[in-house]
Amino acid sequence: MFKAKKKTEERDYLADQFYSLRLVQTSASLKRVTLWLELIFGIFILFLFLPWTQNIRGSGRVIALNPADRPQEVPTVIGGAIAAWHVQEGEYVEAGDTLIQLREVKDKYMDPDLIPRLEQQLKAKEEAIVAYSEKIQALSRQIEALQQSLEFKRRQVDNKLRQSNMKVKIDSAGVQAALVDEKIARDQFDRMKALYNKQLEPLTKLEERQNKFQAAAAKRIEAENKLLVSQADVLNAQIEQSAVVAEYMDKISKARSDKSTAEASLYDAQALVAKLRNELAGNRIRAGYYYITSPQSGYVVKALKAGVGEQIKEGEGICTIMPDGGELAVEVFVRAMDVPLLSKGKTVRLQFDGWPAIQFSGWPSVAIGTFGGRIHVIDYINSPGGYYRVLVKMDTLQDENWPRQLRVGSGVYAWALLDDVPVIYEIWRQLNGFPPALNNMPDMVPDKKNKEKSEKQEDEDSKAS
User: Fold this and answer.
1) Across the strands, what pairs with 58?
2) Arithmetic mean of pLDDT, 131-150
3) Contacts by 275-283, CB closer than 8 A, 24 or more apart
């Protein structure tokens, strides 16, 4: 150290003696600047090799995780005019509390005795159905009786026709016998006449044979007349058979026609009864919609209709209810090119509007005022604008709880954290427009067991969201 000090004194002495030596000598201030530059450059080189956490940025808003806990618009089921308000904006209501009272504006429903009148009409039509049913049963019995009578008459006429046919056969046989008797009498008369002409027999015997011949001819004529009468009876029986069938078929057809008319009237009455029951039930239900109640407990956020007497259409909203309680989540929208790098369970850092924060996206450990979360759901389809929606839940295991003052709809900025890489690699990636490291991508082709488990979990998450 003494030698170095002595050497420095000699150099200073020479510099004082020689001007040219003083010109080429480096000043102390320049040495300090050089030292500082070297120190900064060294720090910068070290900075380039520091670990940097890659991330995916997105923005969104705070929502309720369960759809039932999200703000909902209370609609009117029926149209009408506002009769009275029973709540105020910002008021807390329980499920079933009356929000608004309506009065009727359609003349069709203004009758105060509308339901009793419909009940009377329904009762009358039900009694008409009973009467039509009894008439149909009576006509069915009448048709059955007519069919039985037709069968009886048909058998009776058939028996008469058979008797007439038998009589025709008997009379035909009688005619044949009479013809035979007439022929025999004629032959005997002819022989007797021949004998009389030869004067072998007396005239009295000839006259006797002639009388017998004439009697046999008369019997033949009588038998033929009886046969004609029998044949006429057969024809009359056939005519009577056709007349009986026609008569009873006419009565049966008329009874069936009356039965069909009664059945048609019965069906019309049944259709009208169904219509009246539907209308009666609809009016009873409609009477219950004059008072619009809260579907669940929560706060009346905004009245969409104001005043008394203002008319509301069917399905139009009257106010918005913000349910009380429920688990909060963050709805973040990310670019389509970043979605393959995300998976369920990844860590996300969140910055909420209204909470001061200092965020170093590459060094989440030194961030101040941010809160942790984990990806819960990744949509399968994109939202308007080409962005994909990602739901983030609060990470209660590894981070502090989200602020209690958070409200649904608050804005939020999110950083989905990926792997750690050197700063120099991140700068190089950003300059070249490359995506983050590919080893962050989730498995795209999982095995069958994991795939089924993943699909089951995703279905449950989708139902929950």
Assistant:
1) 414
2) 87
3) 276/118, 276/121, 276/122, 276/125, 277/122, 279/118, 280/115, 280/118, 280/119, 280/122, 283/109, 283/114, 283/115, 283/118
Q: Tokens representing 373?
A: 């979360």
Q: What is residue 89's DSSP assignment?
A: T
CATH for the stretch 54-66+326-464: 2.40.30.170
Query: Is the fold of 54-66+326-464 the same as that of 72-104+290-322?
Result: no
Instruction: Please give the backbone phi and psi of residue 320, each rounded to the nearest 5 degrees, phi first.
Output: -115, 135
CATH number of 72-104+290-322: 2.40.50.100
Question: Taking a C-beta distance cutoff of 8 angstroms, is the pair 356, 422 a contact?
Answer: no
| pLDDT for the residue numbered 7 | 59
Q: To which H or E segment does residue 96 belong?
A: none
pTM of the predicted model, to two decimals?
A: 0.55
Own/partner contacts of 80-86, CB < 8 Å, gap of 24 or more, are 80/104, 80/105, 80/290, 80/311, 80/312, 81/105, 81/309, 81/310, 81/311, 81/312, 82/305, 82/307, 82/308, 82/309, 82/310, 82/311, 82/312, 83/290, 83/308, 84/308, 85/303, 85/308
Q: Give Cα 183 to chain centroid, integer Å.
A: 100
Give me the residue spans of the domains in the chain: 1-48, 54-66+326-464, 72-104+290-322, 114-288
Instruction: State residue 61's pLDDT score.
Output: 92
CATH code, 114-288: 1.20.1270.60
* 393-433 residue pLDDT tens: 988 777 778 888 888 888 998 888 776 677 777 777 777 76
- Rounded Cα gap, residues 84 and 290, in angstroms: 11
- The one-letter code for the residue type at 217 is A
Q: What is the tens place of the pLDDT at every residue in 235-247?
A: 887 887 788 788 8
Reading the block at residue 440, the tokens are 């962050």
CA-wise closest residue to 318 among 334, 300, 338: 300
As beta bridge partners, residue 375 has: 392
What is the per-residue pLDDT across 155-203, written as a single tens digit (0 to 9) for each? Answer: 887 887 788 788 878 878 777 887 887 788 788 778 777 877 877 778 7
Q: Do the Cβ atoms of 370 and 350 come closer than 8 Å?
A: yes
User: Taking 90 as the threshold, does the pLDDT of residue 331 lie above it?
Assistant: yes
- For residue 212 the two structure tokens come to 């017998």
